[in-house]
Amino acid sequence: MEPPLDYDFLAPGRIVFGWGRRREVGALAAELGRRAWIVRGSRTLKRQGLIEEIGQTLRAARVEPIELETLSREPEVADVDRASAELIDRGAAPGDLLLAVGGGAAIDLAKAVAAMVTNRHGATVRDFLEGVGRGLALVEAPLPVLAMPTTAGAGAEATKNAVISSFDPPFKKSLRDPRLVPRIALVDPELTVSVPRAITAASGMDAITQLIESFISRKARPIPRALAVQGLAMALESLPEAVDRPESRPAREKMAHAALLSGVCLANAGLGLAHGVAAALGVHCRVPHGAACAVMLPVALRVNREACRAELALLARQTLRPCPTGSDDDAVEGLIARIARLAETIGAPRRLAELGVARERLPAIAADSRGSSMSGNPVDVSDDRLLAVLEAAL
Ligand SMILES: [Zn+2]
User: Fold this and answer.
1) Distance 70 CA to ligand 1 centre (A)
2) Domain map of the chain by residue range?
3) Are 29 and 148 spatial neighbours (Cβ–Cβ below 8 Å)?
């Protein structure tokens, strides 16, 4: 059944996209505040030159940079609580902004902290997470966030949620609010040139999964669908080159653009089975998100292909070159085969066992796959079916 044509569409207040445009960060930050709390990922640390350059640009624009500790993994409840307490201690207040420089983990940490600094009616960020906390909602607007992604994949620079993990008890849940969408997304594809091969491959597969899952989601809507077509065509064309020739400007530009669009799409249309399972794989087996998506995307396509044949055929015809001729079934098969070939070409993992997942963990993974992402999956998947699907992917 088609969803009613009645929806909101959210996107960053301003998208600044282009090679080398990180140099504009000072002027952009000055539009949002006078002090910038800088949250950065670990890889950025290795590029001290970048942080110094950003600091100088900020000071030149009369914005005071304040560096925070770095985080080398996806953020956990304790990370958010600790960073929020530090900001509050050090006097963060309205008029400040969060500047996130890094992959999806750093950007999500910045978003969560931006919200916790102004919303002190919860004891911990867990109180605000979907399904696991006290169900508190944000009251006050978060501090504004300026997001500068350094990987091309998660699209966190365009989303309204921050994904927060816990390992005891195991969960990976979102803090979600339309006001968490970064006010400015400053996407400089040149920042992705130094991303290692395996991370380029895994984050690229994440973007592709987000584009496809949002296109067939129960919550699919016309604007994000149009963007998903554009993003998927770019990603299919350019991911192998971005992996093989890291310095390729056209490939890095197209992947950064596809990732940005994938974030806009998921923020407005939700996701599906691959992302539902990826969250559980993350907290039960510490599988990195992109690698989990690479394995689960073909699985999710097979589960959904019958229910979404027309949509997937449309997506195949709009994104594959040469354009598939023949029946809808043939077009869908062409898309699935293309993705399998792509994953093989870029050396992405294909089986759960390669990711260190043991058979005895599968029931718990299946049980914990039922979060917000799974609710967007176009077909309902029973526990037994999901377990069988995971076993087949082992
Ligand atoms: Zn993802």
Assistant:
1) 22
2) 14-192, 197-393
3) no
* Residues by chain with Cβ below 5 Å of ion ligand 1: 206
CATH top-level class of 14-192: alpha beta
Per-residue pLDDT of the chain (394 residues; tens, 9 = 90+): 666 789 999 999 999 999 999 999 999 999 999 999 999 987 766 666 888 999 999 999 999 999 997 888 899 999 999 999 999 999 999 999 999 999 999 999 999 999 999 999 999 999 999 989 899 999 999 999 999 999 999 999 999 999 999 999 999 999 999 999 999 999 999 999 999 999 999 999 999 999 999 999 999 999 999 999 999 999 999 999 999 999 999 999 999 999 999 999 999 999 999 999 999 999 999 999 999 999 999 999 999 999 999 999 999 999 999 999 999 999 999 999 999 999 999 999 999 999 999 999 999 999 999 989 999 999 999 999 999 999 999 9
10 in Cβ contact with 181 (< 8 Å): yes
The CATH superfamily holding the domain 197-393 is Dehydroquinate synthase-like - alpha domain (1.20.1090.10)
Which two three-digit tokens encode residue 275?
């992302």
CA 93 to ligand 1 center in whole angstroms = 31
Q: How far is CA 66 from CA 62, 96, 118, in A?
A: 13, 10, 18
What is the 260 CA–ligand 1 centroid distance (Å)? 12
- Model confidence pTM above 0.85: yes
The span from the CA of 121 to the CA of 297, in Å, is 39
